Target: Molybdopterin molybdenumtransferase
Amino acid sequence: MSDCFESDTLISVAAMQARVAALTPAPVGSETLGLRLARDRILAREVLAAFALPRYTAAAMDGIAFAAASPRRLRIVGEALAGHPWCGRVLRGEAVRITTGAPLPEGCDSVEMVERLSFDGDDVEMVESPSVGQHVRYAGEEIAVGERVFEAGTPLGPARLGMLASLGLAEVVVHRRPRVALFSTGDELRRPNAEESDDGTLFDANGFSLTACLERWGADVVHGGTLADSVEQCVAAFSRAVVDADLVITSGGISKGESDLVRRAVGRLGEVSAWRVAVRPGKPMALGSLMGRPFFGLPGNPVAALVTLERFVQPLVRCLAGRTDWHPQRWWAVTEAPLHGRKGRLDLLRGRYHIDDSGNVRVGVLAEQGSHRLSSLYLANCLIELPEDVESADAGTLVALLPLDALL
Model:
């Protein structure tokens, strides 16, 4: 077992984050998916444009297409519709009716919108003289043939999927979703059900909340259930998990209590590079490896488990999923009331921010900060940072905050 379990020295948040970064492996592989299945996945290869966008020079308005050198009164000779182009050549003094997106006919270089036209049978008169190129979308003005559209590592949201479809792509190469083996630990835990019990057991909340976060961040989670307070059971479960998992996470069983046996099981199968972080909530957290797979041992208290997952595990999960450029959001706000912490550790206080009438971000702290109070996370909308070298902050102090969107 690693000697770090025998130490009472707290590791700084910065040092723990540096060790996570050093442990982070490359993305876990790639697969080819149709666009309908690729939402929120991460590109594994760059995308080059096989076609120009727009594909052809087209009208940007409903109206008429013509040559700008023509007089203001023109004769209508045809009609061009989106999907049904007009194939003749338009001479000076002539025009064709045209709809938005329809290819511009040969001989035309301008479009006038219908609201600025006066029709008289087959003739049409423009309100004023046009300029060359007005209301025209030129071929390739957005994307040229061969241009790099997206780099590898780009997340595929709705707009980017639409762009891929516009370029004629039916499928795309994306990073595989990392597989995470997740365990809750403790004899006192059981799966939620409608039956009451007075035997001292608790429903396992962490298994569900942690899974929801990990799946939001691009992972496939295999929940290994609850592990009893048995070193042998933990060793057997971890040995099975690492066969297919890219990452192993536990909640609970990682501190110094007599029944906290995860740390002993980890010592048999791998090593721990860091334990006990100077942060509240979340101090009893471990980082290491199990038979070559990254391992996180999270605290058992629900708030501490979610906060450490968001703060320390999320960057690694996103990297495994292919997001090598991801960084957490961090805002600045003015405190509305005094803040109190403990010098020597980073306090992450649950709070609520709002934007006042002047556009300033202001934040207040929730009264209840216990790490067992899961409700304090969804009643909050941010974590307020009180740094290690600050014991308290007066009202009106500028502080950093982390939005809690990922946990709500």
Q: What stands out?
A: The CA atoms of residues 235 and 265 lie 5 Å apart. The helical segments are 13-23, 158-166, 206-216, 231-244, 262-269, 302-320, 375-379. The first strand starts at residue 30 and ends at 34.
